[in-house]
Amino acid sequence: MIFTLVNDEKEKELAQKRFINKRITICTVILLVILFGFVTKLFLWQVVEGEEYRKVADSSTAYTVTTDATRGEILDCNGIGLAVNRTGYRIVLDKLFIDPEKLNDTILSLVSLMERNGEEWIDILPISVNLNGYSFITDEQDEIKTLKSEDYLNLKNSDNAEYCIALLCERYGIEGMDDRRALRNLLSVRYNMERTLYSNTNPYIFAQDVSSDMVAIVSENMQSVTGVEIQTYLSRYNPSGMLAPHIVGALGKINQEEYEAKQKEGKDYGFNDYIGKFGIELAYEDQLKGAGGEKIVQKNAEGNVTKVVRSEDAKPGNTLYLTLDSKLQAVANKELQAQVKAAKAAGKIEAGYRGSGYGEDCETGAAVMLDVRDFSVLAAASYPTYNLNRYSDYGKYYVRLSTDKTAPMYNRAFIGSFAPGSVFKPAVAVAALEEGIINADTRITCTKYYDYYPTNPVACMGTHGSITLNTALEKSCNYYFAETGRRLGINTMYLYAEKFGLGSKTGLEVSESTGFLAGRDSKTWTDGNTVQAAIGQSDNAFTPVQLATYVATIANNGTRLKTHIVKEIRDYERKKTVYKYNTEKPEVESTAGVSRANLKRVQNAMRSVASSPMGTAYSVFGNYKVSIAAKTGTAENAGSDHTVFICYAPFDKPEVAVAVVLEHGAHGKYSMSVAKALLDEYFKDKKG
User: Fold this and answer.
1) Which of 63, 78, 467, 665 has the fewest other C-beta atoms within 10 Å?
2) What is the pLDDT of residues 289-339, one digit of tens each?
């Protein structure tokens, strides 16, 4: 019985092995059949039918053509457009469809149509036509250099325009044209086609921002010409072009250096693309640009497009919300202009009978307002300003701006560094109190002229007698702070100044200067320089946004937050949030490490500057509806003194901080008036 069971088990095991072996054999046969089929098919394709397939491949070519991405927009904190998109028209030459033998005639016809109707086309050839022939355009040296470079004509600096024209004709195979102007225009287009890599996959933009009337004219006159297209596109527009040009920034045609840099980064850019050149447009280029689409077009051996194989839509860029408030920004711009002109006019009158140095040279200024609760930039104005809608890389308006002695394109609010004058004194006061150099009751007797260091004497605006810290800040006594600075020493002084953000970048997302902190950044130093530094002179030089950050830090009890100007990033449709600044937990840059009691003493003294009849800001803010803490300053310079003003409000529960600088403003009332106008607008519908 036992033997029978064992035999049955062995029989089952053998049967199972035979079944498995059979399945393996069947699978192997199937795989061999499939493999044989592939080999046979490859043989047929490559050997038997190879010539036929080669003919098919030779008779058609596929090209990938990219399409523009919609650029994200830039808005203020309330969603008001600062840089938006609007539909425009452009004329494009598409090599996929154009007859190469008719290219020159097509170009000449388009140029003629445009010029007869007063429309501009893209013309970058730095050569003009005159009675004597051809000559270089003198104010286009960069373009002349590019034309003569190894990449193009490979000429010497001494080679003239006539020779350039001759070489361009040879380069593009143009012969027998007697009309010099027409020849010059044709060469300009052909040269720019080469520069922008005109090809089957890269159509040439002949003209941008074409009027609707011109669209109709071109459509009517060029309807029988293939390869000329009227395209709609989204162009950049600044609804309020003069509101915040230094911050918003501008776009420009991508240059060779930028193109190569983007290629190294693996970014999708073409030679016809526009790119952010400065401001938010540059700082947030990756967020704003979006991704281009593409279409694959098949063209046969005769040059005719047979079909569009595949098309992929472009993806728009994201929309940025800034912390700027357009209403506050407009007030800052308007009041800066008004007070600069007022200071200049009054200075001219005063200089007429007193000599120079009374504000007659005041032409520029800047103002910044921050939200103390998170250090967001509510307004940042630089005067004079300019219009972004008229700005372009090669336009006459740009040339005028770049040669203006007042430098309208210079962002004085973020880049300009100015001696702070007496607004530096609160930092010295905090440092001296914390180090125990003085206390709230320490008295120093002001005799008007401080000459502890005979080589660095300090003159005071008055003879204040024996005074304490509160009175010294209230009356802005130079003597008191010169002596306090001497006792404190320059190293300790600048270490505390650093904690309040002076001489340091504030954290802005756009370009800003570091400023210059006396002692720390000075190449040479003597003890006598210290007393000058203590009253905000010597080598001290700070940006208005640093001064606003500094006073906001005082208002924030010594905690310096990251100053920022981007509030939120959303998708193009403004539905999905990509990034949002956390106002509940703002980013901390540093803490001053100063006791609350010592800070309170300085804050109270700054309150007296505005509220006490003897305070230097009382004339403007003595009866102001909102309680403020402030400090005035004048800084000696070549020409009239700069006037500087910082403040925060309300005093008991700070919401905003302001810094104003008027270059050569001479009298403090003008810078104070700018701050007052900003506070008026901010507190217009609020209780102080």
Assistant:
1) 78
2) 988 766 665 655 555 555 555 566 678 999 999 999 999 999 999 999 999
Tokens 């001479």 map to which residue? 666
Reduced to 3 states, what is the DSSP secondary structure of residue 687?
coil
Distance CA 391, CA 414 (A): 20
The answer to whether the CB of 317 falls within 8 A of the CB of 290 is yes
Structural domain includes residue 569: yes
Contact 473, 633 (CB under 8 A): no
Strand, coil or helix: 536: coil
Q: Which domain holds residue 384?
A: 326-682
Please report whether residue 157 resides in a domain.
no
Tell me the residue type at 658.
V
- Token pair of 357 as six digits: 């140095």
* Residue 504 domain flag: yes
Percent of the chain with pLDDT over 90: 72
Please tell me whether residue 668 adopts helix, strand or coil conformation.
Answer: helix
First-residue to last-residue Cα distance in the chain:
109
CB atoms inside a 10 Å sphere around CB 527: 13
Question: How confident is the model over 431-456, as pLDDT tens digits?
Answer: 999 999 999 999 999 999 999 999 99
What 3-state DSSP class applies to 95? coil
Q: How far is CA 564 from CA 80, 333, 373, 398, 580, in A?
A: 19, 20, 12, 29, 12
Beta bridge mates, 561: 588
3-state helix, strand, coil in the chain (%, to 5): 40, 20, 40
Residue 275 pLDDT: 93
Per-residue pLDDT, averaged over 80-88, amounts to: 93
Which residues on adjacent β-strands are paired with residue 370?
Answer: 377, 657
Note the pLDDT of residue 295: 60
Each residue's pLDDT tens digit, 468-477? 999 999 999 9
- Contacts of residue 517, Cβ cutoff 8 Å, sequence gap at least 6: 494, 497, 498, 502, 503, 539, 540
3-class DSSP assignment, residue 212: helix
Closest CA to 435 of 489, 380, 499: 489
Q: How far is CA 80 from CA 87, 278, 335, 377, 560, in A?
A: 19, 21, 21, 16, 29
pLDDT at site 36 = 73
Torsion, CA 280, CA 286, CA 287, CA 290, rounded to 10: 120
- Are the C-beta atoms of 545 and 377 separated by less than 8 Å? yes
Helix or strand run (H / E) with residue 42: helix 2-43
Dist CA 501 CA 484 (whole Å): 21
Contact 289, 263 (CB under 8 A): no
- CATH number of the domain where residue 538 is located: 3.40.710.10
Tokens (6 digits) for 677: 């106008």
pTM above 0.85, yes or no: no
- The answer to the question of residue 453 being in a domain is yes
Q: Which residues contact 118 (CB under 8 A, 6 or more apart)?
A: none
For the residues 218-222, what does the mean pLDDT come to?
89
3-state secondary structure of 470: helix
Number of alpha carbons in the 13 Å side-chain half-sphere of residue 423: 40
DSSP designation for 615 = S
Q: Degrees (nearest 5) of the Cα angle 357, 359, 365? A: 130
> What is the rounded distance in angstroms from the CA atom of residue 249 to the CA atom of residue 254?
15
Q: 525-530 contacts: CB < 8 A, separation 24 or more?
A: 525/490, 526/453, 526/455, 526/456, 527/453, 527/486, 528/453, 528/455, 528/456, 529/456, 529/490, 530/485, 530/486, 530/489, 530/490, 530/493
Cα–Cα distance measured from residue 14 to residue 158, given in angstroms and rounded to the nearest whole number: 98
Question: d(Cα 537, Cα 419) in Å, to the nearest integer?
Answer: 6
